[in-house]
Each structure stands twice: as structure tokens, then as C-alpha cells.
Amino acid sequence: MIFIGNLTTRASGYAQAALNHLGSLVATGYRDIVFAPLQHGPIPWQTFPAEFDALRALPGGADRGLALLHDTIDQLACVPTQPGTRYLAMTALDADRCPAWCGRGVSLRFERLIVPSEHSAAAARRGRVEIPIHVVPHCAHPRWWEQPLPPVEKSPAQFLFYYIGSWTPRKNPEAIVRAFCAAFPEPGASYAGLIPRLYLKVTGPASQIEVVREVAREASAVALQRELPEGWTRPDVIAAAGHLAEDDLRRIHAFGDCYVSAHRGEAFGQAILEAALLGRPVIATDWSGPVEYLNAARGDLLVGCDLVPVRGMESYVQYGGGLQWAEPRQEALVAALQTMLREPRSGAVAELRSRYCWEAQGPAFRAALEAR
Predict the structure, then answer these.
(1) Which of 2, 278, 326, 346 could bond 305 through an S-S bridge, CB–CB 3.0 to 4.6 Å?
(2) What is the pLDDT of residue 144?
């Protein structure tokens, strides 16, 4: 099999998904893989965790009659194909559907489509995808939770809400900042015996830190009902930008008490899953992929939402054509933050770890590849 996809950085969601899918596949004994990276350069194997060494050590010489392409649905719909090769597609859909032209293009070029959630599968069908669809959830190597988190010094009087991801309309971390400032208007004050803080690790340029600070200042002015001087910052809203190494990400999880996602759409949510696998409770929008593994019994709080037209993604053609996604209700997000602080809990992990590990998903991924 020739794998064609972007593996140039583990920081991207697509790369994380691909690495774990392929790693789980090799764990089943499947070794017939050749890598053909997309346009972003060579694969930096030395930057990936040790569990992916088996991928780097593959001998090559794979069956070139089968190709698996991993990309966004609009790119897959236009990819050139060659006679004599069987093509499979892998993608993720986070809105309510894909544009019909994407569905038709994928159906003409590929035998089957692999997606990470029932939400993505339903979105593909609504978008005119007419080939067989296989749902294979994202997963993680057991090392993710078996290796102890790095030791950190935490004050028992503080409670840290946190988010890891991009600062985009789809991910919607701005709503987290605004809800936090509304839920806990006085910076540094104790609420229910704990001092709440918010940490956002955004995968973008350093200029986004100033954007976070400005949003927090605006939201605090509304919550405190007074004008705040320009340059005023909330000391309990902390932001960092750029890409982090694996150990640094794990340190964030070690500090964090509750992961928060105010997404408008998530095909699956790898960062959300990774937090949940480490026993962190999650506050998340009650829509799209994450609701397939988050629930109240596990300790999570799902935030009510309303379907609205997609906005702010005009430069991405795969979101065109009247698509919808979810708008989390701000008052519900505020209430969820306050509830989590009043009633701290740990997220149950046993079922998640048995279901979303390499050993469970590797055979499912292999079956999707080998289906006829």
C-alpha cells in the first residue's frame, strides 16, 4: 500500500490521526506500506515518539496496486488517479455535511472512504458520497497513559481549565475565554473554595497571545460592568503559542484539571480524546464526533448548542455551499465551568482505553483496507 498524506509534523490533527492509524496497522503485523508524503517535505521521524519507530523501520517495497490518500475532502475530490491502482480515501468531516461536488468527486475516484466517527460518516452520506464508508476511530498508543505524567508542583487551592489547539472559528476557543471571564469575573478570587485559572495552548504565531489577552479584557469589562484600561490583562488567563514537543504537551495535561472544547464542529477530536485518556474530565459542545466517546457517566459535561450556518471559513472551499455546524450556548458553557469547579471529578478511563488503543483499532483499520 502506498500511503499519501501529510506526516511532516505531529502537531497537525491529520498527522496525529495518520501516525496512530498506521502505527496500529503495523502492530497487527501489516508491513506492506510505502510513504509518499504530500507537498510539505520529508517525514521528520526523529521528532516523533518512540512508538512510531516501527513505521520508520518499514522495509518498503509495498504493493503499489493499492493507494490510501489522507487529506481534506475537497482535495480528495480533485486528486488525479491512474489506471491499474485501487484508491482508498481517508478524511474527517466536522460540519453537518460536505459539499455535494466533493461527495461526487470522491465517489468517482475511490473504492471506499475511511472516516473517524459516525458523525463524519453521516456528513459524507448527506454530501452525496455513494461509495462504502468505514468508521475507524482515532486512537492512541498505550504509552500515552502508561508512561507517568511529568511531576508538577500544583497548588491544591487552584483549578486549571485548559485547551490545546488552534485559534480558529471552528475550534472556537474565543468562546472559552469569554465564558471563563463571565463565570469567574474577579481575577484571582476564590469560587467554591478554589481559584480558577484558564490556560490556552494555541498552535499558531505569538501574535495570537495578544488576541487572547484582548478578548479576555473585553469579556472582563462586560462581566465586571466597568471600563478597563487599555493594556489591562487578566493574570488568570494564560496563553502560549507555537508547537510543543510531546513532553511539553504531557506537562500541560499534568497541570490541567479539566479540558474544555467549545468547538463548533469536530470530526473526532484527538486532543480531547488524549485528555480523556489521561483521566481528565471534559467540557465540550454537545455535537459532532466527541459525543461518541464523552458522556456524563464518565464525568464529562456536554454543553447545549444550536445548529447555525458555517461562518468564518470562507477561505476553505470544503465549507462552502450552505453547511451548518453547532454554536455552543454561552450561558450553558458558563454554567458548565461553574459546575465543574463546584463539583470537581476525575474522568473514567477504563472503557476509553480499551476501545481507543492501537490493539483495538488496528484490526478495524486493517479490515477497512482489505475489504472488497
Answers:
(1) 326
(2) 93
Q: d(Cα 244, Cα 235) in Å, to the nearest integer?
A: 22
Burial of 349 (0-12, 13-18, 19+ CB in 10 A): middle
pLDDT at 16: 87
Task: Take residue 92 and report the three cell numbers written for it.
Answer: 474527517
More confident residue, 245 or 310: 310
Category of 309 on φ-ψ map: left (φ > 0), alpha (ψ -120 to 50) or beta = beta
**Residue 283 main-chain phi, psi, to 5 deg:** -100, 125
pLDDT of residue 249: 87
* CA–CA–CA angle 46, 14, 66 (5° rounding): 90
In angstroms, the Cα distances linking 210 to 58, 152, 202, 240 are 44, 27, 12, 10
Instruction: Give phi and psi for 99, each to the nearest 5.
Output: -60, 145
pLDDT at 364: 96
Calculate the CA 40 to chain-centre distance: 21
74: three-class secondary structure by DSSP: helix
> Which residue type does 240 have?
A
With residues binned 3-state (H G I as helix, E B as strand, rest as coil), the percentages for the chain, rounded to 5, are 40, 20, 45
> Considering the entire predicted model, what is its pTM?
0.95
* Residue 357 per-residue DSSP state: B
* 37 contact partners, CB below 8 Å, separation of at least 6: 4, 5, 6, 7, 8, 43
Residues 122-137, mean pLDDT to the nearest whole number: 98
Nearest CA among 313, 265, 310 for reference residue 287? 265
Spatial distance between the Cα atoms of 62 and 30, rounded to a whole number of angstroms? 11
Query: 3 pLDDT band (50/70/90 cuts)?
Result: very high
